[in-house]
């Protein structure tokens, strides 16, 4: 006799079963009835892996009477009496039973009624004295001969001490079998349904894990057990969440394989097509009818494998896909693509399946890939667009279409890997020469060609475009871009100067940006050009869908830099850099880092300039920069030189650069930086040659603006340091001042500093003080430190020693802030901060407030008493962005983080208007 219910349930739980009290009690009742001589049948039904097998085995092993079990398998359906043999084998049946089974199995027409009757009698004889519990697992897979015998036995159980337990996976199809029909007629048969578990709180460490487990398993005991195994065997997650590991994936796939044969194909079709798949499309892909799809989905929902017709977690979908062989997976993806295409689905839905199928052998796929590539470009998915275009190129057999796709590949790849785009040009140039490309495609290739130093090929393309009868906005933008970046190839229209050319509201960002830059290069800084550049940046994205990519934003930024709008340029650079970082756009990050480095260099923030320039070459190595390498490399050389790191600057100069660079605007930055390195290392004639070369190029190109590179002041400095031809130096300085006019600018501040060196000692202090005021306003810390250093020397020459020392101390602090180590050493030889503290009383460094410029002190004083940035800007008549930059430097110099931390001593510097 069976033990108590509590003991039985303990054993069941040890077998991995919970929430089976009612089912266990039902089985105990049926067992009691059968022991009294009235045979019973228990049909254990439930979804796949719902615990039927565990319950059957656990009850049979603990029931206290003789227990035999048989397991059915779909692979053994063709084995006659396979299940019956499993039952009789452990019962020590007489030899006659074995002979009877052999004879019945050999019968071509199946077992006869006489044979079935004889086998039933043999079983009843064996149970006459000892009760018997028979467990048959997965009875839906039993062979037909065994099913006939079971039906025969069930009809005769009324006076036999037998409990027959049958387990069956619930299925709509199983309800219509002969076995089910017979069981419904049997008065002593009981259904024992097993539903998914409703709670697993006792099995997991935390309620959160238990909730997650229920969400992933739907209460399926096998899946729950697999999740427990994953928590035990896998590395815990950093966030403490539930681990989904290999055990879960294996268990889920096992459930599908154990289900009816139609379930697995539908599950695979669902994994391939996605959540929005219709039952019709699933049926076509799985090659079954709609009713079968509905049945399979119901089975998977009931088993907890799906939730409302979709996988409970991406890991579940991935497990189903991984269960497919590589070839089967490709075939299913291709089948899904064909289905979607036949149904008229958009290219954005069809193309991903073709990519996953790695299939591009049919002409109808070409427009699908091209349209999908356009959408990918608009969504800034550049890598995906490239993949689509590569497959379109592979599928296209028409010559002109294939050439057009190749040209587009060049344009798109230029935005993520310019050097790779250059390698593609080898296949596109022959197509251009053969006349297989449109004028628009040829126009779009000019920039990549010149970027990759293919000047001859670019010249051919320009000749082809210029022979065209119409001039589009794209051609206008290209001509202006050439005038700005490759002036030797430009053909600027003689009528209608650039400055007065109107840009229409429908003009693209490239035409607007290059027009603003051309105006700055030709006519100098103006509010209208800066405004036009900002308009471009307001609509800019780090990855533009046009053929120029992110360069339109870069050109607009350069227009602001050359116009000395450094604060505005810095803000836009930081914004675009963050967007490009979020989207992992390497080329865009390289471009914007380069401009940000130039802004920092012109502000005298040498360390930041050096770091951003390094970043630019990290995001896009030197080979990818092409002719534009002169920009980031020039910044590195210039920043290293100003910091006194001459060996580093020399090593950067050893980097090979393309010869074509020196016929482009980018070469000016390199020549200018190299000249300053030569100047700092006492190679004055070499420096002068580089500066004068800049002047010759800029003059001949019509872009002689100091905002690009102030070659006149640098050449004058070379003459002055050499100690010869001071008259030529003075002429260059005066010429520079005349070209600048009365407006203040960084270059004017530098020119005044150098002009002081050509004047008599008593005239120098005033010129240098004027230079200091200008450089303070424009925030160039390095040039301000130099101007202060020269002012200190001027006071020293006039024997104004105390004033000279005060100015020298301030110059040292400014130079120290911008990491100009060599200049610091020149101002306070062999003395660092600690040494300066030990100086005599009259020579001790001033308090930290003394390190501030006059402009910074005014801003800091107003901020300390509670004025907002906008209010300070209104009082001092400068922009809020300038206020922000001043405060950033104030916080750094005073080593504070917030306004409330500003020292009270600043109050004495409040402007009278406050």
Protein traits:
914 residues, mainly alpha, five-stranded parallel β-sheet, two-stranded antiparallel sheet, 46 helices, 7 strands, disordered N terminus, Sig_transdc_resp-reg_C-effctor, DNA-binding
SSE blueprint and pairings:
Blueprint lengths: L4 H10 L6 H15 L4 E7 L5 H11 L3 E6 L10 H7 L6 H12 L6 H14 L5 E6 L6 H11 L7 E8 L8 H8 L3 E5 L13 H11 L3 H13 L12 H13 L4 H11 L5 H8 L3 H13 L3 E2 L2 E2 L2 H9 L3 H17 L4 H11 L7 H14 L3 H14 L3 H16 L3 H16 L5 H13 L3 H12 L6 H13 L23 H15 L3 H12 L12 H12 L3 H17 L3 H18 L2 H14 L2 H4 L4 H13 L3 H8 L11 H16 L3 H18 L9 H12 L3 H15 L5 H12 L6 H15 L2 H17 L3 H17 L3 H7 L5 H5 L16 H11 L4 H8 L3 H15 L20
Parallel strand pairs: 1-4, 1-5, 2-3, 3-4
Antiparallel strand pairs: 6-7
Helix pairs in contact: 5-6, 6-7, 7-8, 9-10, 10-11, 11-15, 12-13, 12-14, 12-15, 13-14, 16-17, 17-18, 18-19, 19-20, 20-21, 20-22, 21-22, 22-23, 24-25, 25-26, 25-27, 26-27, 27-28, 27-29, 28-29, 29-30, 29-32, 30-32, 32-33, 32-34, 34-35, 34-36, 35-36, 36-37, 36-38, 37-38, 38-39, 38-40, 39-40, 40-41, ...
Give an overview in words.
Helix 16 (326-342) runs antiparallel to helix 17, helix 21 (418-433) packs across helix 22 (439-451) and helix 22 packs antiparallel against helix 23 (455-466). The radius of gyration is 43 Å and the shape is elongated. The protein has 46 helices and seven strands. The chain has 914 residues and is mainly alpha-helical. 63% of the residues lie in helices and 4% in strands. The strands form two sheets. A five-stranded parallel beta sheet has the order 2-3-4-1-5, sandwiched between helices. A two-stranded antiparallel ribbon has the order 6-7. It comes from Lentzea miocenica. This is AAA family ATPase. Residues 845-910 form the HTH luxR-type domain. Keywords: DNA-binding, Transcription, Transcription regulation.
